[in-house]
From TrEMBL:
Transmembrane segments: none annotated. Residues 5-183 form the Hydantoinase/oxoprolinase N-terminal domain. Residues 205-500 form the Hydantoinase A/oxoprolinase domain. InterPro entries: ACX-like_C, ATPase_NBD, Hydant_A_N, Hydantoinase_A, Oxoprolinase-like. This is Hydantoinase/oxoprolinase family protein. Residues 518-686 form the Acetophenone carboxylase-like C-terminal domain. It comes from Siccirubricoccus soli.
Length: 694
């Protein structure tokens, strides 16, 4: 019986793989450059390599879990399908009217987020439901067929979205329109707003439906090709996909609702950090995942990452709320910035100041040191210059780095423009990228009312352990945890993530006026749908856990907060408990409560999850204690200290209980952990490096 599983994370620069076979107590990792033109090429090559190295065949694989940045890249780069929209008469311009809010009040040349469906591809259909779902005007079925033909045959659209007013309350008009369109064009990708985002607020719901239709043809082609390529090499198991909310789903759900994968790759890192925080016994953690293109930071408390149910994609201005495409999808709440190993350093012509990122060299041409055609120095190049990386041991010696080429690139580029030495310019790159990440992390925590000093840092990704010590110093964090295989920890996140999904339905009403029978019917509907999706994703039906919440607010407020509910079946007698839960959540968010104002609920949510797998990388490692023996020593530049001799330790020779001081370097195939002075390092029982900063 096949028991092995592979997790595959396709990043902007590297594709990471982790193979786990519980029957052999085996964990094996792999890392290779991403193939941007066709990401599946690196997936197939990497899969064959790790199987060969582990002594397995594709037929011995039980399943594969995959995460991809294809959806978010498609939205950001605007390379999706030509989409048509059918909407309620009078609401053709809702996508451009939006919330009628300018994200920058004082910018006279404000750039609005571009819509995915231009006006000439948006068609109005007569037919109207009221806010309670009652029909005010019958659907014009002839207009549905006429406009669908005009869009498909006349305009050549590749996908259609349907977004009718109040369809979250009753989807009969959308469902009937879909029947008509499918009878005309059975193979046309079609998205109903009532299925992809059955929640109140027609702008966000329609925007989500259009975005789903925009990425659906490309994602379907990608997954179809990946399944064919895997079958070609002999894979007979199941392929699962990571959702933005941190759960895994079957391919069918990924093809039907690809917009739910928009944060697929980054979510895996947060799930890995959540798993590692439980192993390390830490209840307050900042997950820090720095790869070749971006850095992602996320709060993990009590073993679970923060979640949110609104997301903005492709922002015109990074970090500025309202400047992107609004989506109603469940995502892990994290901040993502353009700071990775491939982030390019440059001197701004006007100011003469050096900037680092967000533009990245990616896998092609890559940083200068890769020798693949890159000419502009990047963060990885600066790390090499400062002694943090061994040019002969990058990717375990698989890729040799060229320090001479890097020194010339610095000396002839940014160093000349800044009138400083090449070493000083490299140190400046490190300062800027670390300060950029620290500022973003501070802002993310401050928005949640958190203090970074109360948290530990779990660092992973190819570049995360290289920069974690500097980042922790800037944030005044006292403890860092670096797992074994840190460079591919996101791929581990795919394997420990549970089969999970989030359901939502909207029913607006004050607590004392709600139709509780209708609320219970919504939960029963979500329960059935969630169980079906999780069973398709391989979950044991008996192990599925359900967690109900509601989005609630005081009457008159503009936005709501999530509130835990006492159960799946609710009645009027539960109102006092629901009120107290609302006040507790409100106090946590705002520091006060207003008890004399009425409370209303807008949306009802059900989180459905089954247990993930428990993978102990360090299981069975014998404790040794004492101080390990370094295999070399080399000078490393630390800001404020200059070059210091740093012992270099082999990560695979470390055993639980070993201790040593900084400065030091710990090298493994996929990453290097840089440890500064006045730091004590302990290897815990799971082979994590635990850095305690003085």
């Amino acid at each position: 019986m096949a028991t092995a599983r592979i997790g595959v994370d396709v990043g902007g620069t590297f594709t990471d793989l982790v193979l786990h076979d519980p029957s052999r107590d085996l964990v094996h990792t792999g890392k290779l450059l991403t193939t941007p033109a066709d990401p599946s090429e690196a997936i197939i090559e990497g899969t064959q390599r790790v199987l060969r190295e582990a002594g397995l065949t594709p037929a011995g694989l039980h399943s594969m879990v995959h995460g991809t940045t294809l959806v978010t890249n498609t939205v950001i780069e605007r390379t999706g399908a030509k989409v048509g929209l059918l909407t309620t008469a009078g609401f053709r311009d809702s996508l451009e009217i939006g919330r009628e809010i300018r994200y920058d009040l004082y910018d006279l040349f404000l750039e609005a987020p571009p819509t995915l469906v231009p006006r000439y591809l948006r068609r109005e259909i007569a037919g109207r439901l009221d806010a309670d779902g009652a029909e005010l005007l019958a659907l014009d079925e002839a207009a549905v067929a006429r406009e669908a033909r005009a869009l498909v045959e006349g305009e050549g659209v590749e996908a259609l979205a349907i977004g009718f007013l109040h369809s979250y309350r009753d989807k009969r008009h959308e469902a009937r329109a879909a029947e008509i369109i499918r009878s005309l064009y059975p193979d046309l990708p079609l998205t109903l707003s009532a299925e992809v985002a059955p929640e109140i607020r027609e702008f966000e719901r329609t925007s989500t439906a259009c975005a789903n239709a925009y990425v659906q043809p490309r994602m379907q082609r990608y997954l179809d090709k990946l399944e064919r390529d895997l079958a070609r090499i002999g894979f007979e198991g199941r392929l699962y996909i990571m959702l933005s909310g941190g759960g895994i789903c079957a391919v069918r759900e990924a093809k039907a609702f690809p917009i739910r994968l928009i944060e697929s790759g980054p979510a895996a890192g947060a799930m890995a950090a959540a798993f590692l925080s439980k192993l390390a016994g830490l209840d307050r953690v900042v997950s820090y995942d720095m790869g070749g293109t971006t850095a992602k930071m996320c709060l993990v408390e009590d073993g679970a990452p923060d979640h949110k149910f609104d997301f903005e994609a492709g922002r015109v201005r990074r970090f500025v709320k309202g400047s992107g495409l609004p989506l109603k999808v469940s995502v892990v709440d994290m901040i993502e910035i353009g700071a990775g190993g491939g982030s390019i350093a440059r001197v701004e012509p006007g100011s003469g100041l050096m900037k680092v990122g967000p533009r990245s060299a990616g896998a092609v041409p890559g940083p200068v040191c890769y020798g693949r055609g890159g000419t502009e120095p990047c963060v990885t190049d600066a790390d090499l210059m400062l002694g943090r990386l061994d040019p002969a041991y990058f990717l375990g010696g698989e890729m040799a780095l060229d320090p001479d080429r890097v020194r010339r690139a610095f000396a002839e580029g940014v160093a000349v423009k800044l009138d400083v030495s090449a070493d000083t310019a490299a140190l400046g790159v490190q300062r800027i990228v670390d300060e950029t990440m620290a500022a973003a992390t501070r802002m993310h925590l401050a928005e949640k009312g958190r203090d970074p000093r109360d948290y530990a840092l779990i660092a992973f990704g190819g570049a995360g352990p290289v920069h974690a010590w500097n980042l922790a110093k800037l944030l005044k964090i006292r403890r860092i945890v670096v797992p074994l295989g840190a460079g591919v920890a996101s791929a581990l996140g795919f394997l420990v993530a549970p089969p999970a999904t989030d359901m939502a339905r909207s029913l607006v009403g004050r607590l004392e006026r709600l139709d509780w029978a209708r609320v219970n019917a919504l939960f029963a509907e979500m329960d059935a749908e969630g169980r079906t999706l999780l069973e398709e994703a391989g979950a044991d039906p008996a192990s599925i856990a359900l967690t109900p919440t509601a989005d609630m607010r005081h009457v008159g407020q503009g936005f709501e907060i999530p509130v835990p509910l006492p159960g799946l079946r609710l009645a009027e007698t539960d109102i006092p408990a629901i009120r107290e839960a609302f006040f507790a959540a409100y106090r946590t968010r705002f520091g006060r409560v207003v008890e004399d104002q009425p409370i209303e609920a807008l949306s009802w949510r059900l989180a459905c999850a089954a247990p993930g797998q428990d993978i102990r990388i360090g299981r069975g490692a014998a404790g040794a204690g004492g101080t390990p023996t370094p295999r070399a020593t080399r000078p490393v530049v630390f800001e404020g200290h200059g070059p210091l001799p740093a012992p270099v330790y082999d990560r695979y020779a470390l055993r639980p209980g070993m201790e040593f001081p900084g400065p030091a370097l710990v090298e493994e195939r996929e990453s290097t952990c840089v440890i500064g002075p006045a730091t004590r390092v302990t290897v815990d029982k799971h082979l994590n490096l635990v850095l305690d900063l003085g």
